[in-house]
Design brief:
- The chain is mainly α.
- It has helices at 4-33, 35-60, 65-90, 95-100, 104-123.
- The longest helix has 30 residues, at 4-33.
- The two termini are 24 Å apart.
């Protein structure tokens, strides 16, 4: 239970940033550059948010390395569940489309970013 609070906070910070950036990407960048480039341009911003959020959470909740990995993985589970809920209930997409119908380039980069999101709390100290 000690990892639930840091996982939830980490998820909320990163998901909140994505929630703010999503409409900017969809309504301003996608029409000009397309989905691939819009998503690729958003990723460095999200990586920066993930980096700082993991450090902030690690400082606020001083946990051991294994617990930091567990809260990162739990936050990943929360993020995937939230993405699935938005895709299915808000966008009317299928589960298959939500996770597998992605651009080959930006989709691969996205899944790489999810891995970073999950493991960065373990790799990063609270600096």
């Amino acid at each position: 239970m000690a990892i639930f609070r840091p996982a939830l906070l980490y998820f909320l910070i990163v998901f909140g940033a994505g929630f703010i950036l999503g409409p900017i990407r969809v309504f301003l960048i996608v029409p000009r550059l397309g989905i691939r480039w819009a998503e690729l341009l958003e990723m460095p911003v999200m990586l920066t948010v993930i980096y700082y959020a993991s450090g902030k959470i690690n400082r606020r909740f001083p946990l051991g390395a294994a617990a930091r990995l567990r809260y990162g993985l739990l936050a990943l589970g929360l993020a995937l569940a939230a993405e699935l809920a938005v895709a299915v209930f808000v966008q009317g997409r299928s589960i298959w489309d939500a996770f597998l119908d992605r651009d080959p380039v930006s989709g691969s980069a996205y899944y790489g970013l999810l891995i970073i999101f999950a493991i960065l709390p373990r790799l990063r100290w609270g600096v």
